[in-house]
Amino acid sequence: MNGPAPPVVLDAELTLKLPLNGVKLIEASAGTGKTYTITNLYLRHIIEGRSPAEILVVTFTNAATEELRGRIRSRIHDAMQLLSLQAQNSDEFLSSLLTLWQNLDSGTQQQQIKRLQLALRCMDEAAIFTIHGFCQRALTDHALSSGQPFDAILLNDDLALWESALKDWWRLQSYELNPIDWHLFQSCLGSLPNLLAAQASLRAEYEPTLLPNVNEDLPALFQSWRQLEGQLAGLAVAWQDNKEEIQELLLNSKALSRSKKLPYHKDNLFEYFDLCNNYFDSDRLLVIPDSLHYLGSTALLRESTPAKRGSDPELEKGFFVHAQHILDDIDVLRSRFRVRALLEASSFARDQVRSVKQQSRSIAFQDQLSLLYEALNGATGQALGQQLRSRFPVAMIDEFQDTDAIQYGIFKNLYLHQENISLTLIGDPKQAIYSFRGGDIYTYIKAKQEPSVEHYSLLTNWRSEASLVNAVNKIFTHRAAPFIYADAIDYLSVASALNKPPQPLLQDGSTVTPLTIWSIPQNQHGKTESKKQVYRWINEATANEIARLIAGGRDNSITLGSRPLVSGDIAILVRTAMEGNNLRAALSARGISAVTIGKDKVFGSVEAQGLYDLLLAINQFSDRQLLHTSLASPLLSLNYLQIASINDDENAWQDWCEKIRDLHQVWLQKGFIAMFQQLLQVLEIAERIAGSEFAERSLTNLLHLAELCQQQSRVSAGFDSLLAWYRNQVNEPATDATELRLESDEDLVKIVTIHKAKGLEYSVVFAPFLWTCRPADVKPDSILRFHDAQYNPVIDLGSDQHAQHSFITEKERLAEDIRLAYVAITRARARVYLAWGDVGDGKMSGRPAKTALGYLLHARQNPDDLDCNLPWAFDHADDVGRDLYALAEASEESIEIIPLPQTADGQNFDVAVGLEPILEAASLNAVLANNWRISSFSGLTRDIHQAAHGGSARSGEDSILDFPAGSHVGLLLHEVLEHLDFQQDIQIQCADLLPRLTPRFGLDSNDYTNTLSGWMETLMHSPINETGLTLSALSTKQRLNELAFDFALDELDIGKLNAFLQGIAGPALAPVTVNNFSGLITGVIDLVFEHHGKYYLADYKSNFLGASLQDYTADKLQAAIYDRRYDLQYLLYSVALHRYLTQRLPGYAYEHHFGGVYYLFIRAMRPQHGSRYGVFFDLPDYGVLQQLDLLMSTSTARRGEQ
Predict the structure, then answer these.
(1) What DSSP character marks residue 381?
(2) How does DSSP assign 1047-1114, residue by residue?
(3) DSSP state, 420?
(4) What is the pLDDT of residue 598?
(5) Cα maximum dimension of the chain
(6) What gap in Å lies between CA 27 and CA 441, rounded to an integer?
(7) DSSP of 7-70
(8) What is the pLDDT of residue 843?
(9) How far apart are CA 652 and CA 336, in angstroms?
């Protein structure tokens, strides 16, 4: 079958003669003058009699509409001046226009000049909109035809409405389902956060095909599930009859892998047998443990050692095959149930959201597109379409590669197959990089395949130097199908503009190679290096090279054409904020300032949290806790000593309270901005910020936040409403208004995300991280979004083709990464730096096959093979260099390959000569007394070696035991538990809490929300003592969270403390080794609770002691307590609680009221095991506490002397 005809090259001459009617698709490669072409076509429509009000121009951001409006106005003005004065012009299009105009009769000439003059006067009426702006105008101006209310309220987002509706649906199911059906429900949908994420995926596509196809409703599926019980009962009988033989086979098979991650490992098998025995003995066979699948023949074959796979025929027959048949039926039914449940949840939520909007006469921002689309395809659609075509007979759609099915559907309905219209679709499919915000390159491809669409291409590059254009051509013609979809997105070599003044990068007067690829080396053992080390190398190499370039610019040895290179000519393009932050730190270490430009939002900044803390305190100025929090705000940055000093000094505390109270009154009487200005002055915010490393960034963020708050305060009803809006903004996606602003107009190095850099250009570009990638989530239980062979959207929720579809999903991810690389490389005018090599923790990793540069530079994979995932890896370590040098050899000296600059043994790179020295504060040589300090349990025990416990390695099968460890995880868990109401729905609370909290502690909410929600649910119902007491039994009135305490000390005698502790537990304990000191001992008790008249303290421990519950038995916990010296910690806590109760509880007596100490190792607590695992309890002897209390006391006599 013949492919589509090649596009016609569109130059200035053809643009002037091109018939304007019909539908045209113009593909504009990077730097080829897309906006220039739009303005020229607009100018032609004006000259031929259209008014600005009749020419619809649609682009995708408010900033782009204003830029287009200005460019079009200037173009019309230039043309009018040219024709009026008939002066020659260097602009090729305008020069050709003048030639044509001069051949017209005088009447036509004057008519065209008058049209230009009138258009200039009418530019305020120009129909230049964002897509949402156009839809809103169409719906408002044609309300009767579109069926929309005249006075609809516009909502920025309806996400909160959807989440509320889905929570209602989830709540209904939890109330109505019996325990067996609820288990199926949860096993298929996971947690409430999983449901919300799945629904977000469904709403992201327009009318997708859902797999598997399910016709049954939920009651029928529940019935099918209950019918499985008979099959499971038969399997249970088979287990009981054959379990000794089955266990013997699993114990002795030579084929099975004995990885510690699997239940087949010798340390895990007997625990696994206990689990199977308990399950098959139970009367709840439909409550199926996840690990049951390890008894199936499929898992046994898959988890066999590769060299011995299939060598044990006993694993592929009998009980194991019987189990596999049932497991297959279970998987199929669960997949079908999941699809139907998600569809019913979606239908329920859609109806509820629609009802809420109708009652409130409101529409969401995104609704404008779907409402116009539905109106055009509804009963009155033909009349509405005619009205809009009459009003806008000409339409030009900019950035068309970022369209989607609904947007294209609107313009297709309006203009395709219509007479006397002009529709121009202009964009570059090679730059389609916004799938994360709804851009759909596959809709573009389908539009391109329309038979009535004429194809044109812009192929003259006006941005880059000729040698760099040649280098980019070489990169993208190095292989066939560089953008994977050869029939839809091709690369046509572009030419450099002949009459563009050259401005190459020169060193000592000689042109440098325009594209440099740093070859990433292997480590000293000849193995591939780890990602962590390569990141370090590249950060240092990039910072050093920039320092060299800037120094060369200062001494005039490095120039752009005839002028010196300056900092502002350089940009570093990154994918993530972390990459940018690390590079900025490396530059700062060399005295080089940089500004960051990215898609991050100001409400995610440290300053946003700091301002919020202050606003909360100002709003509730009588709340002592909020006032304390405000003192620790990042905007004030007071340390613990300063806060303690204010707290202890009554005059200082009153002064602080009065300042906050005064700010409240100013806010109340004069408004937000007046209060903010006084806040800056009274609290000396600017002065405090000025001393920070990134002061300019911080001040820009703070002023930006104030501006947004002032705007919102005009529509918010009071302080609480404004603060609620502020809080919600933290979870909202960034918009044009909330994206971080450029903090400086100075001529500085720019650090820019690749997504933000699209449409921009820089003289020198570093894109040093294109060797990285983030593969798509294609795990067996993941939701796959991809497109079929006809480019229609498909969502696979667990079909039998899920594994095959995972390859297609990954192919689409790779294709977008290639487009992202194209955007990065084509931002440069003079020079580009890339880095490339195989990176993989010591072995040939196969990672290159998953990266854009691996696909482009090595040409080892046929794009057709990507559908079945035929991965490749380098056969030999020198394959990387061989391929790269062959590419450079064929590039006509436009590409150079050099080793990544680095120094041996991890030494620092030389700082470039010529930079101004970094100023440092003078050193203080005086000796300060250091025996007064504020310390804590951690401070007392920081020098004690804490040996790793001999727990088993991570199993990979228990998501709670295997949850990441580390202090950040512990802090997150404490934060979650502090905010949970133990007696309310944990899933719903976690759905609100976790998306806000997990990013603050460095975790991806999408990856961990399900596990955390389930973990908290499990923890709440796990007994902590033999009577069955659980945390879920504790009301908020019975709990006191985060009880802070301070002990004042004259001098703590560490020798006496060690003797005291060893007298309790024996001399084997590691001693406390800090020096004697006076001052304060501080601490915070996680939880104090009351139960049956006694008061207990509890501490949550997330320590990883091992991957088996056996690692959390009472004796193992006792060892961990002593090893980490938690015995000292809980004795300190007990003294603190004892003192607290003595002061607060009338008639308090230790023997009657002090209940004891719980240390809850929460990884191992399970409802089904009682308090057997993870619970440590002790009731300290009263005499012991009295002795420790005495050691910690401050003498009255000494206090009186001071």
Answers:
(1) H
(2) EEEEEE-HHHHHHHHHHHH-TTSPPP-SPPEEEEEEEEEEEEEEETTEEEEEEEE-----SSGGGGSH
(3) S
(4) 63
(5) 114
(6) 13
(7) PEE--HHHHHHS--SEEEEEEE-TTS-HHHHHHHHHHHHHHTT--GGGEEEEESSHHHHHHHHH
(8) 47
(9) 66
For strands 1094-1101 and 1077-1091, give the pairing: antiparallel
Whether the Cβ atoms of residue 816 and residue 424 lie closer than 8 Å to each other: no
Residues 103, 106: Cα–Cα separation, whole Å? 9
Q: What pLDDT score does 524 carry? A: 65
Determine the Cα–Cα distance for residues 722 and 671; give it in Å rounded to an integer: 12
Distance, CA of 291 to chain centre: 31
Which whole-number Å values give the CA distances from 561 to 501, 545, 1009, in the listed order?
A: 9, 19, 54
Task: Enumerate the H helices of 922-1053 as residue ranges.
Answer: 937-941, 967-979, 986-997, 1005-1020
For the record, the structure tokens of 400 come out as 């068309």
User: Residue 34's pLDDT is what?
Assistant: 95
Tally DSSP H helices, then E strands, for the chain: 43, 31
Flag residues of the chain having pLDDT under 50: 1, 3, 842-845, 904-924, 926-929, 933, 942, 945-956, 1195-1202
Distance CA 706, CA 338 (A): 45
Half-sphere exposure in the Cβ direction for 946 (13 Å, CA): 13
Q: What dihedral do alpha carbons 1177, 1180, 1185, 1186 form, nearest 10°?
A: 160
Q: pLDDT value at position 13?
A: 87
Give the per-residue pLDDT at 36. Answer: 95
**At residue 1164, what are phi and psi to the nearest 5 degrees?**
-105, -5
Q: In a 10 Å sphere around its CB, with 0-12 CB exposed, 13-18 middle and 19+ buried, how is residue 799 labelled?
A: buried
Q: What is the pLDDT at residue 1067?
A: 63
Q: Which residues contact 125 (CB under 8 A, 6 or more apart)?
A: 51, 52, 53
| Listed residue (590, 515, 468, 579) closest to 909, CA to CA | 590
> Token pair 């030639």 is at which residue?
99
1185 with 1051: CB under 8 angstroms? no
Structure token digits, residue 872 = 């490749």
CA distances from 55 to 63, 119, 799 (A): 19, 11, 48
- Residue 598: closest CA among 388, 711, 756: 756
Q: What region does 753 belong to: left with phi over 0, alpha with psi -120 to 50, or beta?
A: beta
Q: 1182-1191 and 1054-1065 helices cross at what angle (nearest 10)?
A: 170
H/E element, 676: helix 672-682
Rounded Cα distance, 661 and 163, in Å = 37
What are the beta bridge partners of residue 453? 23
What are the phi and psi torsion angles at 1034 (to 5°)?
-95, 120
Give CA–CA dist 606/228, Å, rounded.
54
For tokens 């305008």, the residue is 94
- Predicted pLDDT of residue 1197: 32
Q: What is the pLDDT of residue 741?
A: 64
CA distances from 1076 to 110, 935, 1058, 1067, 1131 (A): 97, 11, 12, 20, 19
Closest CA to 320 of 342, 338, 301, 335: 301
CA pair distance 643, 632, nearest whole angstrom: 8
Q: Rounded to whole angstroms, how far apart are CA atoms 1097 and 559?
A: 69
**Which residue, chain included where needed, has tokens 């075509």?**
389
- The string of pLDDT tens digits covering residues 699-737 is 888 888 888 888 887 766 677 778 878 887 776 666 666
Please state, in angstroms and rounded to a whole number, the distance separating the CA atoms of residues 587 and 736. Answer: 28
CA separation for the pair 41, 38 (Å, rounded):
5
Taking the C-alpha atoms of residue 754 and residue 826, their distance in angstroms, rounded to an integer, is 11
Give me the torsion for CA of 629, 635, 640, 643, rounded to 10°.
-60
The Cα 9–Cα 32 span in angstroms is 12
Tell me the CA distances in angstroms from 985 to 164, 176, 900, 989, one per residue in order: 14, 15, 54, 6
